[in-house]
Amino acid sequence: MKYFDNEIELRINDQPLDILPTEFSFLLKDSIYDIFNTANFSFHDVSGLLQESFLLTEGIDIEISYGQEKNINKCRYVIIRDELDSPEKVGLMSGVIELKLVHKWYDEQEIRSTAYDKKISTIIQSFAQTYTYGFKEFDIESTVNDNIWYQPLITDSQFINEVLLPNAYSYSSNETPFYCYITNDNIFHLKNAKQMFESNSIDKFVFGIDRANNTKATTIMDLKRWKKGTYLYRNLHHRLIFKLNKDTGALETKDDYLTDHPI
After folding, report:
1. DSSP 3-state assignment of 261?
2. DSSP-assigned letter for residue 236
3. Of 88, 9, 2, 102, which is closest to residue 45 (Cα–Cα)?
4. What is the distance between the alpha carbons of residues 210 and 207, in angstroms, rounded to a whole number?
5. For 47-60, what is each residue's pLDDT tens digit?
């Protein structure tokens, strides 16, 4: 559906949802700290038909496509929570429905107990390649951690977060940490902080309304502070890092501070 200069399309379980863009809104979120990107979706179900037919309940797929002709972002999500605060009409489940969405790969996670004799980057990419609907592309930096890695009765995403990422290393990372995350354009990333800080910008954003064309994708209408709170990273303020020297076999220790590398 074309809306001004933009293309917007919603699909529920692969069926197009024919509603006006003025009847819904969505907020997309991705972060280097979370593997799965998420979305908040708000929809005004005037008749209550979608609620009564269970088309907006947990486990249902929603595909969101948006952008302009030469740059369309498309990503499939699954509903993990649906809320209807108060029905607008007696006898109908009508009103504003708030949905919490997460990337569809979250719905395909399985608990495994196995071992891998491969590099960390190879293991992570093999996980991502099992995604049924496929990622748009892979942006994966190769690691040098060729070892035996054990996955003890946890999902692939837990294994990535709890075992693989803390041990990921490459010669170009300069000892900065690795991050694994999916962006809202359905691209799967595995990159270290040094690589991200040294990458070139891909676009220029302008703050304020461009009166000649206020629907430009690079126009920023509002800025808000984003802070997670020190309690989430206070354990990184001063750490004692242990590392096994592969050349000598010696166990090396080092004081590590929050300012030693970006987090």
Report:
1. coil
2. G
3. 88
4. 9
5. 777 777 777 788 89
Do 25 and 62 lie in one domain? The reply is yes
The string of pLDDT tens digits covering residues 185-243 is 999 999 998 888 888 887 787 777 655 655 566 777 777 766 666 666 666 677 788 88
Domain termination residue (choose one: 92, 107, 122) = 107
Report the number of distinct structural domains present in the chain.
3
Q: What's the CA gap between 194 and 173, in Å, rounded?
A: 6
Distance CA 232, CA 261 (A): 17
Residue 146: both structure tokens together: 């060729």
Q: Which domain holds residue 244?
A: 229-263
User: In the structure, what pLDDT confidence band is assigned to residue 37 with cuts at 50, 70 and 90?
Assistant: very high
Q: Are residues 121 and 94 in the same domain?
A: no
Q: Higher-confidence residue: 255 or 21?
A: 255
Rounded distance, CA 129 to CA 64, Å? 21
Confidence category of residue 5, pLDDT binned at 50, 70, 90? low
Task: Please give the angle made by the CA atoms of 146, 149 and 155, to the nearest 5 degrees.
Answer: 130
For residue 72, count CB atoms less than 10 angstroms from its CB and return exposed for 0-12, middle for 13-18, buried for 19 or more.
middle
Q: Which of 81, 107, 133 is the last residue of a domain?
A: 107
